[in-house]
């Protein structure tokens, strides 16, 4: 029987009512006790490492998750991390950047409704996460609703729908029907490398700037003056920046000349960035701006934080 370590971090899945609304309070052992289908599937141990609404998750918590994973990697066959849905895509992307050579499944899951609520999606999500954790899957992934998603490709698309996450620019690792998983790929994120290792350094002075029509480029000066090391520009369409009357290129050049990494991403959900199509992209690229390619904003941000620190 495989040994699985369940890491609890809080989130809606573990919430109970309070006078100020739902707050995370239930531990992993309690969550599992409410999913009787798990009996006999595997041996489960528990560590409650956080108990947060995931809106309060920050890079130090990603580092904590990675360190706990490293400390226990040789002791278990797989890992399930319960997490709030609001920032779970950021956490799965961050952990995907921070681990290498991960030959065991590391599965994020959560819920849109607390596990004690009638009609909750939590019980199915927990069961499916453990099915993935006891499977042939490797690396970091996210199991939610009817899909299993590569750790770098998840995005929360719905605030209430039980199929809250989609796999962006990559087919899901698996689809789920009933309690049956149909696999397209067993390989999640962080599988590359000869042996398991964790890199916990992250540069936190990284920001995402979302372009809107008419937004003045002097907003970039704010980040330069405050010592930011990297900027993700969430641009329009195929990427790039305005270069007409509202010309972003001089401010962009000033950032790059001062050693700030600039990555052009897109506000479009699918297809990614191509800076070679229009002058707004090619001119930015000539100044030294980089393309996020097909990465989600979550993955582009955490990748830049990782790359700047390592």
Furnish the topology, listing elements before pairings.
Elements: E1 3-10, E2 15-18, E3 21-24, H1 28-33, E4 43-52, H2 59-72, E5 78-82, H3 88-98, E6 99-100, E7 105-109, H4 122-133, E8 139-144, E9 147-150, E10 154-156, E11 165-167, E12 174-177, E13 180-183, E14 197-198, E15 206-210, H5 219-225, E16 230-235, H6 249-257, E17 261-266, H7 279-287, E18 290-291, H8 297-309
Parallel strand pairs: 1-4, 1-5, 5-7, 7-8, 15-16, 16-17, 17-18
Antiparallel strand pairs: 2-3, 6-14, 8-9, 9-12, 10-11, 12-13
Are there runs of 5+ residues with pLDDT below 50, and where? none
H/E element string? Answer: EEEHEHEHEEHEEEEEEEEHEHEHEH
Radius of gyration: 20 Å
Q: Span from first to last CA?
A: 38 Å
Number of strands: 18
Major sheet: order of its strands? Answer: 4-1-5-7-8-9-12-13
Helix content: 25-40%
How can the largest sheet be summarized?
8 strands, mixed
Short description:
It is built from eight helices and 18 strands. It is α/β, with parallel strands linked by helices. The strands form five sheets. An eight-stranded mixed sheet has the order 4-1-5-7-8-9-12-13, with helices on both faces. A four-stranded parallel sheet has the order 15-16-17-18, with helices on both faces.
What does this structure look like?
This protein has 310 residues and is an alpha/beta fold. It has 8 helices and 18 strands. Helix 2 (59-72) crosses helix 3 (88-98) and helix 3 (88-98) packs parallel to helix 8 (297-309). The chain starts with a strand and ends with a helix. The model has no long low-confidence stretch (mean pLDDT 97).
């Amino acid at each position: 029987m495989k040994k699985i370590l369940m890491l609890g971090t809080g989130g809606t899945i573990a919430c109970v009512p309070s006078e100020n609304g739902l707050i995370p309070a239930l531990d992993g052992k309690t969550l599992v006790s409410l999913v009787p289908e798990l009996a006999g599937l595997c041996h489960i141990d528990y560590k409650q490492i956080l108990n947060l609404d995931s809106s309060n998750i920050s890079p130090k918590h990603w580092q904590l998750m990675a360190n706990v994973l490293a400390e226990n990697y040789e002791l278990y066959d797989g890992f399930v991390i319960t997490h709030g849905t609001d920032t779970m895509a950021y956490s799965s992307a961050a952990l995907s950047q921070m681990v290498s050579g991960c030959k065991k499944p590391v599965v994020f899951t959560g819920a849109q409704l607390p596990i004690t609520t009638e009609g909750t999606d939590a019980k199915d999500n927990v069961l499916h996460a453990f099915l993935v954790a006891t499977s042939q899957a490797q690396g970091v992934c996210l199991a939610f609703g009817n899909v299993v998603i590569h750790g770098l490709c998840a995005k929360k698309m719905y605030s209430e729908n039980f199929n809250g996450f989609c796999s962006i620019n990559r087919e899901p690792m698996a689809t789920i029907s009933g309690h049956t998983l149909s696999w397209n790929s067993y390989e999640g994120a962080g599988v590359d490398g000869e042996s398991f290792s964790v890199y916990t350094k992250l540069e936190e002075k990284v920001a995402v700037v979302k372009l809107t029509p008419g937004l003045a480029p002097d907003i970039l000066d704010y980040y330069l003056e405050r010592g930011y090391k990297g900027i993700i520009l969430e641009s329009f369409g195929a990427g790039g920046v305005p270069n007409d009357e509202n010309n972003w290129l001089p401010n962009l050049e000033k950032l790059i000349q001062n050693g700030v990494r600039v990555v052009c991403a897109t506000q479009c959900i699918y297809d990614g960035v191509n800076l070679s199509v229009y002058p707004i992209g090619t001119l930015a690229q000539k100044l030294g701006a980089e393309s996020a390619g097909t990465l989600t904003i979550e993955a582009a941000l955490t990748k830049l934080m990782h790359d700047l620190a390592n």
